[in-house]
Amino acid sequence: MSIRVGTCFTSMAGALVMGLVLAPASRAEGTPAAGEELVRSHCSGCHREQSGSFERISAIRKTPEGWAMTLFRMRQVHGVVLDDAGRSAIVRYLADTQGLAPSESAAGRFALEQRPNAQDIDLGPEIGVMCGRCHTLARVALQRRDEGEWRKLAHTHVGQWPSLEYQQSGRDRRWWDIASGAQPAKLAALFPYSTTAWSDWKKHPAADLSGDWVIVGRVPGGRDFFGTGRIARNSQGEYTALYRLTDADGAELSGQSKAIVYTGYEWRGNADVAERSRREVYQVSDDGNRIEGRWFYEDHAEDGGEWSAVRDTGPSRVLAVLPQSIRAGTTAGVNVVGIGLETGEAKFGDGVSAGEIRRDAHVVHAQLRVAADALPGLRAVQVGGAGGHLAVYRQIDQVTVEPSYGIARLGGGRVEAVSAQFVALAFTRLPDGQLLPLGPIDAAWSSTPFDAEAARTEDQKYSGYIDRRGRFLPGAAGPNPAREFTGDNVGNLSVVAQVEDGGREVAGHGHLIVTVQRWITPPIY
After folding, report:
1. Could you tell me the CATH superfamily of domain 317-393?
2. How confident is residue 355, by pLDDT bands cut at 50, 70 and 90?
């Protein structure tokens, strides 16, 4: 589980990254030559230039967020002042010329997308302790250096934070001897500066994302949404997108976005959808025909949703069947979302009949009736030559809670609480004993003490509550005179999702830690 206990940057770094999109560079500053000239004029006073390379700078590769954090540190520690346009141009130049290939950033994308309760990368016990006590190991993996640069990074850590060796339980080992000894070579072997992946990616032409797209997604604890988008590219290589989206109940979620695509595939956008600002962190596929990732609210990164957009070209395809399952003996509305769906007969498999069909090129909406004696299992959904799947079930046999282990944080003062969103996933057992996933399901949510000690200290009473959507809303930070030792309002809880199924009750359980405030929220955990 990814638990952040400290880092090197203040939350202002998040605002800096937002500025990269909110204040894009001018046309002149958006060119590679202009970005290089800005590095020369603002950085070469300390980072000596030699044969077109800048000392330290030219020997490192990072994501856009990584370079933005570097510029923030330069301002915070060394007084380097840049306007928004200049900062954006420098980050864009460095991310494009010294970034990471898609295969190199893949393992750490959860940190770029600010995914809550994500499992961190496992780099072994030594690196896990040496680096992972202060930040995620994804942050380590989202940069590339040779052995000498990894060694210099260790020196930078101790030079800037002299008490580092005595923090985060560091006195259990000779931290500096390890950091300045064998570890830089190990990091260089894992995350080297020079790689075939990067040299190949630099030759890869960046796709023009202009055109029409079909979009599907889901809000955890909420509903599926789908619709279309139109993306346009301006002369500076920046993008605007217009979205026409609806959720499963037909509520409109339309809006627009402005974005920059770094390194040929890193979409970073600011969107206004349904009258609320959202941050977009997406990845463009190698062929430029798919955009996937996560959006989240600027003020609460833990609150967001999944996003997938596919270019509206090519043969007919089914992208999603929403909802994913229907109970035998019931009637329900289903949306089949895809490309080229305006023609061709719509079929939903054995025991499933369709009525009241409405359709266009991207959505087939049908009222489906599933026979009471329909066998449980997957049904092939066919719309002309395009195919998908729908699950039919008679009863729910298992419910699981995701995440199985979550973290929420108390709020108070200038620091808002960090909620934890849980989702109930249903399964039915097929005649052969296999479990068939049915997708997210509505549940009655509650929390209980995780163990006897949590019951004794009344954690459930003080730490917060879980709402009907499965979102745990933490209480206010302490100290609390009503608690033992005037303790904080932390808690150790079980989260319960209870589903009533034909007179039966099926429940799933998760584990939740409600812990102290998080004061530092960097762009990369």
Report:
1. Immunoglobulins (2.60.40.10)
2. confident
